[in-house]
Predict the 3D structure of the following.
Amino acid sequence: MDAETLREYLTFYQDLGFTSLYKRSAKPAKAEQVTVPVLPALPALAPEGDTLEKIREDIGDCTRCRLHAARHSIVFGSGNPQARLVFVGEGPGADEDAKGLPFVGRAGQLLTQMIEGTAKREGIPLERNDVYICNVVKCRPPENRTPEPDEMEICGQFLYRQLSTIQPKAICALGATAARALLGRKEGVTRMRGNWFKWRDIPLMVTYHPSYLLRPYNQDAKREAWEDLKKALHFVYD
Ligand code: SF4
Ligand code: URA
């Protein structure tokens, strides 16, 4: 493995939340306590010439984390594979699990309205199909609970490959889970929203998750989310 490949590996696994790529062999005799590199056992980095089809193929009939047990479908993502803007949610809900498509329930309808409504008002010719939409985890968490850190870490590798392959001009992280998966930050969305961050070299905007905006007492947040979206759309499409 050359230095460049090794560097890419390290960045990739740091992004996934690994802090060390070495583990001790189980109960070593004192004299042979050595650290053993585990790089060869790690899943492959996003390969050269990766495509969304290859990523979906690699996911297969995935059982890599506990979320596989109750799911009906793997919700990979939908939209334009060459999208200049990618939206990342948390994980499929009941409607998405049933249909195999992201953001098709109530939150999804609001997201569609937000994208298309903002674009229209801002004079940007853009439909939902022009962007790409996916989630941090591809299988529905039971009772729509928040995905666990290990689930996000395991499934996150596919999200990272999707983003690396699409190479959008910007990413919009919907809610705290997406922000945590992509930025490793645990602050509330209220603090982060409306600001630009970066995932690798790609500008990333954090905003509220549409499910949060559906609650009647969050109407201020709704206005703010429209502002965030307006900013992101102008950045990408002007
Ligand atoms: Fe596999 Fe992701 Fe589904 Fe877990 S959530 S089973 S890692 S596809
Ligand atoms: N909420 C999400 O985070 N993702 C979906 O696909 C639907 C609802």
About this structure: The chain has a mean pLDDT of 89. The pocket of uracil (ligand 2) is lined by residues 89-93, 96, 102-103, 105, 107-108, 135, 211 (CB under 6 Å).
